[in-house]
Amino acid sequence: MYFKRYDATQAETWNAFVAQAKNGLFMFNRKFMDYHSDRFTDHSLMAYDDTGALIALLPANQRDGTLYSHQGLTFGGFVTGTKLKAANMLELMHLLQAYLQQNGLSKAIYKTIPHIYHAHPAQEDVYALFRTGAQIIRVDITTTVNLSDPLPFSELRRRGSKKAAKQGVTVQQSHNFAGFISMLAGVLAERHDTKPVHSLAEIELLASRFPDNIKLFTAEAAGEILAGTLIFEYPHMAHAQYIAASPAGREIGALDALFDTLIRNTYAHKAYFDFGISTEEAGTVLNEGLIHQKEGFGGRAVTHHVYELPAAR
Question: Does residue 224 contact residue 247 with C-beta atoms inside 8 Å?
Fold first, then answer.
């Protein structure tokens, strides 16, 4: 086995591999990854077996002598083909340690891909990380609904959805990204003193590149957006990337109506609906109010793990 460092001439090969991988996601497509390439020093790797066949990808960037699972992505360890098995991954992880040492990198910060995102089981890397002495340095909790056997909504969430319906709130797919981002920015500034990670221009660009994967849904009344969520849609699941409600929307349960529709109707045919993480400060703080709301829709915990893998000595 050996690594080659990715360069732009390999984009087509990279994207084709992602499309057929066990845990390939559209956000690993270079058309997604490279929209913010000016912010990162890309150090993605392509792994080949001894016959020269491509067997794995590692979306990554380099910063201050450390290799990171790409910091522009929520997660992203090895993206693997269906032929890669446990013993191969163990060899590959040892090879990564040697690569770090040979390239003057002290360690890798490795963010595993949660199992709910896998098209086929692909946790060979978790075992290999254990075997190579990697240490867990962060755990986040995301809240996920099992759509094949969903738990009931809480009484509070049911009441909110009914209240919204009585107020004439309707739920639909929307292309009013500007209206949603404006509302989201206001909510984040007021409640968390932060800004959206993506700008309006970036979201519109990515939605134009991936119209089947990035979708905006809104809850509206009288032409006004009261709540919305930007969905990242995958073949067997949907993930709420951004969620926001206006003060008026919170008053009448607009978010409850929105997620009632998405969970019970729009995405009922999928395996999972994921609300995203409710942890802060590198996983050390649980936002109990936020996770309680998500759990009210029948969601329960799935963990995101971040590992520190030392270079070979």
Answer: no
Strands 279-280 and 285-286: what pairing? Answer: antiparallel
| Residue listed under structure tokens 């086929």 | 120
Looking at the DSSP bridge assignments, the partners of residue 232 are 214, 239
Q: Could you say which DSSP state residue 71 is in?
A: T
- Pairwise CA distance, residues 172 & 228, whole Å: 10
Q: What is the pLDDT of residues 86-108, one digit of tens each?
A: 999 999 999 999 999 999 999 99
Q: What does DSSP assign to residue 284?
A: T
| Domains in the chain: ranges and CATH | 2-140+305-310 (3.40.630.30), 149-270 (3.40.630.30)
- Map 103-143 to HEC letters: CCCCEEEEECCCHHHCCCCCCHHHHHHHHCCCEEEEEEEEE
Lowest pLDDT segment from 196-200, 244-248, 276-280, 296-300: 196-200
Distance CA 93, CA 51 (A): 19
Alpha carbons 62 and 54: distance in angstroms, whole number: 22
pLDDT score for 106: 97
Q: How many residues does the chain have?
A: 313
**Tens digit of each residue's pLDDT (9 = 90 or more) over 30-75:** 999 998 878 899 999 999 999 999 999 999 999 999 999 999 898 9
Phi-psi region of 24 (alpha: psi -120 to 50; beta: other; left: phi over 0): beta
- 150, 162, 165, 256, 263 from 260: Cα distances, Å: 12, 10, 11, 6, 5
- Tell me 265's DSSP state: I
- Non-local CB neighbours of 197 within 8 Å, separated by 6+ positions: none
